[in-house]
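## tool: complex_structure
## caller: assistant
## args:
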Amino acid sequence: MYYIGVDVGGTGIKAGVVTEDGKILKSCAIATKKDSHYTELIKDMADLIFKTLKEANVSLDDVKSIGIGFPSSVDDKNGVVIYTANINLNNAPVTEELKKYINKPIYIGNDANCAALGEYFALNDDSVENFVAVTLGTGVGGGIIINKKLYTGSNGSAGEIGHIRLMMDGEKCSCSRDGCWECYASATALIRDSKRAAQNNPDSLLAKNIEKNGGRSNGKLVFDTAKEGDKTAKKVIDNYIKYISEGLIDIINIFQPSVIAIGGGISRQGDNILKPIKEYIKGKTYGASYITPCEITVARLGNDAGIVGAAFLGK
Amino acid sequence: MYYIGVDVGGTGIKAGVVTEDGKILKSCAIATKKDSHYTELIKDMADLIFKTLKEANVSLDDVKSIGIGFPSSVDDKNGVVIYTANINLNNAPVTEELKKYINKPIYIGNDANCAALGEYFALNDDSVENFVAVTLGTGVGGGIIINKKLYTGSNGSAGEIGHIRLMMDGEKCSCSRDGCWECYASATALIRDSKRAAQNNPDSLLAKNIEKNGGRSNGKLVFDTAKEGDKTAKKVIDNYIKYISEGLIDIINIFQPSVIAIGGGISRQGDNILKPIKEYIKGKTYGASYITPCEITVARLGNDAGIVGAAFLGK
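## result:
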């Protein structure tokens, strides 16, 4: 049997046919009609699913279930998208609507939660019962697996781990608070901090590299500049590692999962971030000296996690 | 059938015979021999259990299981106490030892987790699947109920919600970090902050009331002084409410439970803390304007929560 996973984003919708063991057999994408009525978006989605099945040469009869990840707060029990920032999809009964086209079990979830579920299955380790995925991207997202199941809370919206407080009266957050972890550990925060540091140290290599790049900074640029020995970039990275690690310590103290996987563009730095993060965290989690430590790793699926995780909502 | 709940503390051990619906039929207590070998402590515990059963006039045949809450990190799967700060109980196979005296199913847990489980059952609301209990005492402890079960993580030590970071580079914590929630929201923190405020405002009523009390402050004194209209005490309380609330927002953003119950001595202030906390939190949790809010309440069982929760580890 196969699973269909759909990953809805602000710009595109991707659908994939996923095998029992989490491989994407075939995927297709279309643009998201952000301002259309939800019925139109769901019709597009149904067409996309049938197209993907056809290209994968898989019959609908061989599909066990369909899962959809939305960049939204969702009521997963009732199949309703509650709120989406950038798409016209509020209070939309999406499951009921998609049922008009496809008579299969349909599951919906938040996209970050789906990505976490995908990464959990990618671990392929049956001994892991509790797992947290953290995505360091434009913001900081995440998803929580408890007793091998996605945890979505009492209203479908749990797992906003980017919005735990790191610093009282800190940087302004996109949510209504300030000082959230996201304001310090996201790629956006790294870019902001690197620009500030460059401004304060105009003779640094960091300032020069940002200038050479048309005034734009990015994660790779800052890491590369630090590797060249620039003290300003190195300080920015050291702080960034501290910010990431402090949030991870919070997550460990709360959940004591077996594994945390770090995803998002920054995670492509691999050991450049993993090693210093592990070093920083060592001994700082509650009871660190006598309890089994949590393993910290980088995410494996990257952009495919959303499709695989959505597909496996029904697994 | 009945359940036996045992609550092990640094000074005393309490055992209770608990009914199916969470009432303590009879409880007895003894002093904790903190420095004795664990075998002696467990022998005392067995004697205490038999004494309590006798006084309750309940036969061991009518007992379904025994649960014990330790002020410790525990390996609940294997029945071993891993680490305790104040009692000689490290790496102690307590379940195996107690089995020598009593042949019943035995469960062990952390005391704060047990109290949370007790408070969860005290809600007596089957619709509540996810629940967090927070105890504002000497420290800040807590316990997490997920899908109606106590969540203890992959190593038995989850739920250290007092040790999430509220303030980077903040007050020194008893764990290895600084700025933990516990450093701001515990009764200990309130007392510290009230003394500081009194020192800085020697003409305030707060300063006078602390002086009258032999230089000692306590939660009730600060709340009472604020109620009398003293601005210094009021500011201390306002900040304290802010600190409690900011941690609660973190917990809501992560867990989105249906209910959070606040326990500990401070919770006896009832509406004096509940009302301003609810007011502070309103609109500040992630997605507050469109998702079902979490109910915040005060704990119901008080000191009995430990016995009832321990008893119900086996329920």
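## assistant note: Residues 2-104 of chain A form a domain with the Nucleotidyltransferase; domain 5 fold (CATH 3.30.420.40). Chain A touches chain B through 50 residues (CB under 8 Å). Handing back to user.
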